[in-house]
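#struct-pred

JT: dropping the chains for the assembly here, can someone run the whole complex?
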Amino acid sequence: MPPATTRSKAEPKLSRPVQVAEAIKDWVVEQGLQAGDRLPGEAELIERFAMAKGTIREAMRILEAQGLIKTRTGPGGGGFVHEVSRQRAKALLGNYFYFKDLTIGDIYQLRLALEPELAASLAGNLSEEVLALLEDNIAEYSEPAATLDEERQQHVASLRFHAVLAEQAKNPMLGFIIDFMVNLLSDLTVYRRLYSPPNLELWKQGRDHQQRLVQALRNSDGDLARSIMTDHMETAWTLMRQQEVEMQSRFISE
Amino acid sequence: MPPATTRSKAEPKLSRPVQVAEAIKDWVVEQGLQAGDRLPGEAELIERFAMAKGTIREAMRILEAQGLIKTRTGPGGGGFVHEVSRQRAKALLGNYFYFKDLTIGDIYQLRLALEPELAASLAGNLSEEVLALLEDNIAEYSEPAATLDEERQQHVASLRFHAVLAEQAKNPMLGFIIDFMVNLLSDLTVYRRLYSPPNLELWKQGRDHQQRLVQALRNSDGDLARSIMTDHMETAWTLMRQQEVEMQSRFISE
DNA sequence: ATCTATTTGTACGTATGTATT
DNA sequence: AAATACATACGTACAAATAGA
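RK: done, full complex below.
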């Protein structure tokens, strides 16, 4: 784990559990412990830090809440260094944006900038299994939705297409951000304006984009993939704008 | 605060403190509490959840570690809903990437996609104070660095330029991501290859880019700002590539 | 399958620290 | 300055879970 960066401002005062948590973090880094490695048990930590049991436990909870450790009971149990999961990271970051009232436009501005880049970088780099997975996914919305609920399901499914791509990203940060945004959009409740029927033409365009995109990815045509994805994002954005979509922020828990 | 999303997989079992933390989170959302609002004191929580003091305290630590509450002692003290700070969010997200070995290339791929977008969106939207701040910042590296240490300082200062822009973003997510990346780069230790002298030409280009960028922003010329920033990012990337830069991941604490 | 040892998890009572009035 | 209200910290006792004999 990483050590604390230079503490710039003279912070007021850190509570003991936080101090202990930081100390354990630093110790883990110093020892070069890797994910899966066991850290000292409660008893030893109590002794080493000369703190009460409760204090140590609170420190462990802090590390656990940050996704850095897991704990198990029983013989051989204790705290174990844990790689922060993507799910946990998304949840923690989601808490930040909960207070920020993001708009759909904000998200699409980013998707428009990033997803074409991802598509281009994946061209020729996907296994046949993944390509097949993408095609199977598209099949879930080969026909227009009949009911409102079905439409909602299709919407989520079409977002899954992008989540699959995100997972394949060689650039961990690019993949994470796109995955995070797709999650936000999936969590949205979409209300379509009652008297505006779904735009079939745009829906069809979106589906075709995805089909052509898979072909471009298979043919290692990065430029084409990028351009299709750009069109796709613009279509999707237009579709969202036409529907009455309300951004409903909420906490994501792991 | 946001409620838990649908728990898809039957998770093994959540420890009591985690359960309590989730319950408090949900309760806060339900009550519509805002940042700054006080939540029930320890005593009341102990009563309401019928849990021991220690358990409640661990729950509070979890929420605190996630940046969702702060606690104060003394009369009128207790837990208070707190907007997750950008610093905290960056630290938590940094923990995720600590295990992911990001490369400089990964970061610049993203900066190249996002910073021009930010620049374009800021054109004509910056106050004269901010524009002056940017110009003052550029002045810190109006002359080539004489020493290695001075060069390092200039590098950090030139990154601050981008942090200032990020802070002005209307799109909270765009601003956050760029700020996060700038932080990562600032935290890097930069080792220049001993026998490769700094590339003065590129350095000069970078400085000029920033100057011209401020002008474009002042003149509300979004397209120009975007194009300058694109060039700037390409220059900066080339500069990083020429120097021997080692990505050194570490934990960021708030 | 049962017991046993180990280690975390929970509970409770008391004492201390800290800020408000 | 003193009393009050609250979190913070400590120590012990017991419960629950798990691995291994």
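JT: nice. Residues 15-17, 51-55, 72-77 of chain B lie near DNA strand C (CB under 10 Å from a C1'). Chain B has two domains: 16-81, 87-253.
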